[in-house]
Write a structure and sequence with these properties.
heterodimer, A: 566 residues, mainly alpha, MetI-like fold, 0% strand, globular, B: 284 residues, alpha/beta, Rossmann fold, 6-stranded mixed beta sheet, binds adenosine-5'-triphosphate, binds magnesium ion
Chain lengths: 566, 284
């Protein structure tokens, strides 16, 4: 009965798009596997190297902090550095985001320039920026603030402009129809809609910047990283662990607070709550009798009770005021507690174009063949760490997704576990692994994989929680087992998110690989650091351009794949 | 094709056959007893019967059907399906029973991102061991069987199209093919055509009931449309606020008047008000 014709029918047809996608996936897997093999890591490496790791842990135990006061001050400096950096980033990113939004600016060149600026700032690693700024402003918090601020423009500008482009056109047209000017159109028709997401995005960035700021000290930019560097230098492993634990706890606290505040601001109850943050704050222009004055100039009474014009003090508004005033307070603290001088910062600005000008290579004298090898090693580290982390992340994500986890306690345990792992800054883990396993790409990849594992597990688990329940009911009703149900109804639904996030993990992994060399963990990072130390700015610039090309290529590729798998 | 046509259909004497569904004193409350969705429901369905449940929105139709394959647990009472106590079965035994009970959902509940064939194939999961991902992870024999089922619902040419690119009626037909793939003894259908337009509704109901008659499957189906119900059912059960208010074979004694009574609401004083009107008829 089975003819060759019907044989054909029960296999999915081959299409160009399908084969291209398959080729991309095969390339991705082969890339990960080959890199892991070449560098000499695999999922069992943690097990086979356990002796060295335990030895080091033994030397680290028990954690100690000799000067708690110093550590506390450094921690406060670190947070304020992150805060000021984020504030600077937001301040610079908002106008750029408006310039790059296609529903605000019609001129393609202006928009293109703004986009390019966003892409470039995102590709400049904050650690390298910090290194460069340390050359200009000397050791301290200021280089850190500038590095964080400049690097943040990339992500903030991109996400801000995305949310501007997603606004409802209705309210805006309403404002335009009432005869408003161009600026009024933006402040009344656009701003109220985007401010909640702007705040949420900024808080998210604060969270990221705080993680980054704990490391900036490694290159001399102030904060708690300086202590890590000191203890690493003096081989004082007990204090190294002590300070690391403090950092982990602080990062976890900042993450919890920032996600809570984000939830309050975005209104996580499903109700139709889309109130503008400005209105909640009761800010903006209060209606005065002036506004009601008839054209002939006769004096006018307000047609209603004055009190009714002020929003009532409800819970939302109180929360928003507390949030707003604490932001202001922290900004003031940021310029008073650490030795961060606003004047110095402003005075430094004119030098920045000069610095970047120095970075542009005039010729190819900076190139050495070693750089090519190191760049390849960097790419391999990125792929290897991605592969290693994904092997562990996808199964864990199933346990950490509320709707798929086999039991409530499993979910809670998995979520707490990944929160803990996420709080480990990868460079600090790299410092520790380098101490245990020696210099080279292997400890770097292992450290990076741990960081990416925590990060990607959370992304995967969150998107698995968003899948629709209906198809699961449908498959369950056929008598499928739990595992079958997961593979048949959960995975296909989560697939676009899993692929998209995996590519994002690769992107993050490659960026991170470029700086691991700072702590001796292989890749292009080492010559980058040497280059800034020795004022070889053209070398640094040349290498940065190489990194940029690499990162940008991955970004274009992942944009294409994402479009194919929606 | 059999000679089955709309309401003109041989009505076997079902009462002689053993019941495949038995519900005894079923009570279901939600929100700690504040919502009483089912209130002392008792009935049984003999093999081969085409039983349709009608009632207003919120009368408990979905809740009742979901109890029959263990998607809900009863607050009180018992549910026996094909000789197994659905309310007590757990794990593998419950899944084994579910493979014999097909379910067609109002919202189709298919996986939109995958091909039609893959959705139909998932109906065979109960017959297979281990997880499956992608069409090619199913044995060829199953793929051919699934294609045959798709052809049966008239979608053989759409096997490798993404399911969410089909129209609503076509998606429900894929869901019906998935259910047929399961080779069930009983089919539970929860308002299978409520989200389709009247024309398509008729076609889909036709397909569903024809296939079930052909494969000798017992049907328990909830419906909004009284005309469709009267056209296909061999028995009507009317639900009102979780209670059975009508249970009758579809014959000449079952007047339109009696059926429409199910669609009346009770106001707090116990008087009946018609669904759309505001006039109150005093019952006393
Ligand atoms: N998960 C639940 N939690 C709380 N209440 C529920 C739940 N499921 C159903 N109910 C309530 O039980 C009652 C019966 O609901 P059910 O969905 O069974 O009605 P229905 O007859 O299927 O209505 P429809 O025709 O709109 O589908 C309703 O009052 C509903 O609000
Ligand atoms: Mg229902």
């Amino acid at each position: 009965m089975v003819t060759s014709d019907s044989k054909q029918q029960v296999r999915p047809p081959v299409s160009r798009r399908r084969s291209l996608l398959t080729a991309t996936f095969v390339a991705f897997f082969v890339g990960c596997l080959y890199s892991m093999w070449d560098i000499g890591v695999n999922p069992l490496t943690f097990w086979t190297e356990r002796q060295d790791l335990f030895n080091l842990l033994d030397r680290m135990w028990a954690p100690r902090i000799d000067e708690p006061r110093l550590v506390w001050e450094a921690a406060l400096d670190t947070f304020l550095m992150a805060f000021a950096g984020t504030a600077l980033g937001v301040f610079l990113a908002v106008p750029i985001a408006f310039l790059s939004a296609n529903n605000v600016v019609k001129n393609r060149f202006v928009r293109g320039a703004a986009r390019a600026f966003i892409v470039v700032t995102r590709a400049l690693p904050e650690l390298i920026l910090a290194l460069i700024f340390v050359r200009v402003y000397s050791i301290g918090v200021l280089p850190g603030v500038l590095a964080l601020g400049l690097h943040s423009i990339g992500m903030l500008g991109k996400l801000f402009s995305d949310s501007i482009e997603q606004i409802d056109t209705g309210p805006r047209e309403g404002v335009v129809a009432s005869g408003a000017g161009r600026l009024q159109e933006i402040t009344t028709g656009i701003l109220p809609q985007v401010i909640p997401s702007f705040i949420a995005i900024s808080l998210y960035r604060l969270d990221i910047n705080f993680r980054a700021s704990t490391l900036l000290g490694l290159v001399g930019a102030g904060g708690i990283g300086l202590q890590i560097r000191a203890h690493q230098g003096s081989l004082d492993y007990q204090q190294l662990l002590g300070v690391t634990l403090v950092i982990i706890v602080l990062i976890a606290i900042v993450e919890i607070i920032s996600s809570r505040v984000r939830a309050v601001i975005l209104g996580h109850d499903d109700g139709p709550k889309k109130k503008s943050v400005l209105a909640t704050l009761g800010l903006g222009h209060t209606v005065e009798a002036e506004d009601f004055r008839p054209a002939d100039g006769a004096s006018a009474e307000l047609p209603f009770d004055r009190e009714a014009l002020r929003p009532p003090w409800n819970r939302d508004r109180i929360v928003m005021w507390i949030f707003g005033s604490s932001c202001l307070a922290m900004l003031i603290l940021a310029f008073t507690v650490p030795d961060l001088s606003f004047i110095e910062m402003i005075q430094g600005f004119p030098q920045i174009p000069e610095i970047f000008n120095n970075l542009i290579p005039r010729n190819m004298d900076w190139w050495e063949d070693r750089w090519g090898e190191l760049l390849v090693e960097t790419i391999q580290m990125g792929f290897a760490a991605t592969g290693l982390s994904l092997v562990f992340a996808i199964p864990t994500a199933m346990l950490a997704a509320r709707n798929v986890a086999p039991a409530r306690w499993v979910y809670n345990a998995a979520r707490s576990f990944i929160l803990g792992v996420r709080a480990l800054p990868d460079l600090i883990v790299a410092v520790i692994f380098v101490a245990a396993l020696g210099l080279g790409p292997q400890p770097g990849v292992l450290a990076l994989a741990i960081g990416l594992y925590g990060f990607s597990t959370k992304l995967f688990a969150d998107s698995i929680e968003e899948i629709k329940e209906g198809p699961r009911d449908g498959v369950r009703a056929t008598g499928a087992s739990g595992l079958q149900e997961t593979f048949t109804s959960v995975l296909p639904q989560a697939m676009p998110a899993i692929i998209g996030h995996s590519l994002y993990v690769l992107d993050v992994s490659l960026r991170a690989s470029t700086v691991l060399g700072i702590v001796g963990a292989g890749g292009i990072g080492f010559p980058l650091v040497q280059g800034t130390r020795l004022f070889q700015f053209e070398l640094v610039g040349g290498l940065l351009i190489c990194i940029f090309v690499l990162v940008y290529a991955i970004e274009i590729l992942s944009a294409w794949v994402r479009k194919q798998v929606i | 094709m059999t000679d089955v046509e709309g309401a003109i259909r041989p009505t076997p004497n079902h009462a002689d056959l053993p019941p495949v569904v038995e519900v005894e004193g079923l009570v279901k409350t939600f929100d700690n007893g504040r919502v009483r969705a089912l209130d002392d429901v008792t009935f049984s369905v003999p093999e081969g019967q085409l039983c349709v449940i009608i009632g207003l929105s919120g009368s408990g139709k979905s809740t009742l059907l979901r109890h029959l394959n263990g998607l809900h647990e009863p607050t009180a009472g018992s549910v026996t399906v094909l000789g197994g106590r659905v309310d007590q079965l757990k794990g593998a035994k419950l899944r084994a029973l579910r493979t014999e009970v097909g379910f067609v959902f109002q919202q189709f509940n298919i996986v939109g991102r995958v091909s039609c064939l893959e959705n139909v194939l998932s109906g065979a999961l109960g017959r297979l061991r281990g997880p499956r991902f992608g069409v090619l992870s199913y044995p060829k024999r199953f793929r051919e069987e699934a294609l045959a089922q798709l052809e049966r619902v008239g979608l053989g040419d759409r096997a490798f199209q993404r399911t969410d690119t089909l129209s609503g009626g076509q998606q429900q037909r894929v869901a019906i093919a998935r259910m047929l793939m399961q080779k069930p003894k009983i089919v539970l259908a929860d308002e299978p055509v409520a989200s389709l337009d009247p024309e398509i509704s008729g076609q889909v109901m036709d397909l569903l009931f024809r296939a079930c008659i052909e494969d000798q499957i017992t049907v328990v189906c909830s419906l909004h449309q009284v005309d469709l119900a009267m056209g296909w059912a061999s028995r009507l059960i009317g639900l009102q606020d979780g209670k059975i208010v009508l249970d009758s074979p579809v014959d000449d004694d079952l007047t339109q008047e009696r059926v429409m009574d199910v669609y009346r609401r009770l106001d707090p004083e116990g008087r009946k008000i018609s669904e759309y009107g505001t006039s109150v008829t005093d019952l006393s």
